Amino acid sequence: MTDTANLERSYRRWLRWYPTWFRREHEAEILGVLMAGAREGQRRPEPMECLDLVSSALRMRLGSRVPRSERSVCTAIKLMYLGAVVELATAITIVATLGDVRSSVIQRHAGYTEVQWHAEMVGTLEPLVVAARIAVVLWLWMAWANGRGHRWARVVFALFFGLNLYGLFNGLAKGSAVYARTDLAMAIVLCLVQLAAVTLVFSGDVRKIAVFRSGVGRISSR
Amino acid sequence: MVKRTMQEATFLILTALAAGSRHGYGIIADVARISDGRVQLRAGTLYSALDRLRIDGLVEVDREEIVESRLRRYYRLTPEGTRQLAAEATRLQSDAATAFARLGLAGETPR
């Protein structure tokens, strides 16, 4: 096999990092550019070329495809990332304030035993931490899916908002305002962030984003 | 709100396309020429930038050719791309003029 054929085969292997739609539309084109820029006698891609291809491919897979002119959707996506950060902070707060919650519970209920506290931990607080971790993933997933222009993502995000709102009211009804004011404040902040993001994402023109969801490369005529 | 300024690579790609449509390798070569070899775009970076510019409606595909059995796709500026490039060039020119004036170099080319 010649050096050129070897090199081309190597480049094709590195291009597999890109999404299928990108390879379908641009592989031949980008391969032409890579081969045109190769040194005489080059047999394999240089490390910096590989790093550039991999980082660009990951950007292509994970990055938002919303036009910057769609400001409301761009802001909604930023709010979703903010939501993930706040949710993570909530999980950390729950763990960090466990001692305070325990003292508060013991103060209000004389005769509260270690066994009862352990049951409270297993039954309520640990699921809360797990739920917060799941919520971080959900926020990030929603930011990604809405950034890719998936129509279903708006609906799923609205349902996610409904679920969070239900959780907040349920917590209030169960008296969490008495025991964990910080957690409650975090839940209210999250619901407000979500409300703003839902409003913004529904006010955007999803058709414009959907156009760029999978590649494009159409030749335009002026 | 502070308006986002254009990244240098984006500015140079749009500048390369301002002279007419170019294919991928043509853009890389032209950007290197415009920047006196300071900016050497790699293929991955170029196609990420072109993808973003197309999403934002600043460039579009002009035509395709097969040369030596390889696909060449030519890109060109859209009217919005032309407008944004002109706006950025004006902004850079104004900033540079202010810098030269404060350095007492107005009308001179710094070495």
Number of helices of chain B: 4
Average pLDDT reading of chain A: 83
Largest sheet of chain B: 3 strands, antiparallel
Assign an overall shape of chain A: elongated
Whole-number total of structural domains of chain B: 1
- Strand element count of chain B: 3
Largest interface: A-B, 33 and 26 residues
Indicate the radius of gyration of chain B in whole angstroms: 16 Å
Helix content of chain A: over 70%
Total number of strands of chain A: 0
Strand order of the largest sheet of chain B: 1-3-2
CATH architecture type of chain B:
Orthogonal Bundle
The main β sheet of chain A shows up as: none
Describe the structure.
The complex is a heterodimer of chains A (222) and B (111). Chain A is an all-alpha fold and 222 residues long. Chain A has two domains: 60 residues; 139 residues, no CATH class. In chain A, helix 7 packs antiparallel against helix 9. The two termini of chain A are 45 Å apart. The mean pLDDT of chain A is 83. With 111 residues, chain B is α+β, with helices and mostly antiparallel strands. Chain B has one domain: Arc Repressor Mutant, subunit A, CATH 1.10.10.10. Chain B contains four helices and three strands, in the order H-E-H-H-E-E-H. In chain B, strand 2 and strand 3 form a beta hairpin. Chain B starts with 7 loop residues before the first helix and ends in a 9-residue tail after the last helix. The chains are: A mainly alpha (222), B alpha+beta (111). At the A-B interface, helix 2 and helix 3 of A face helix 2, helix 3, strand 2 and strand 3 of B.
